Amino acid sequence: MQNGLEARLSYIYAQQTAVTPSAQNTVQQAYNLIYLGLSATVAPDTRLTLTGSWRNLNNAARSPLADPYNNEDLYMKFQTKVVELTRQLDGKNQLGVSWGYVLINTDVNFVYNPVQAVYPAFVIPTHLYGLSWRHDYSKGLFTILEYLHSQAGTFSASDVSGFDQQYYPSYGRALGFRLGYQY
Question: What's the pTM value of the predicted model, to 2 decimals?
Answer without folding.
Answer: 0.78
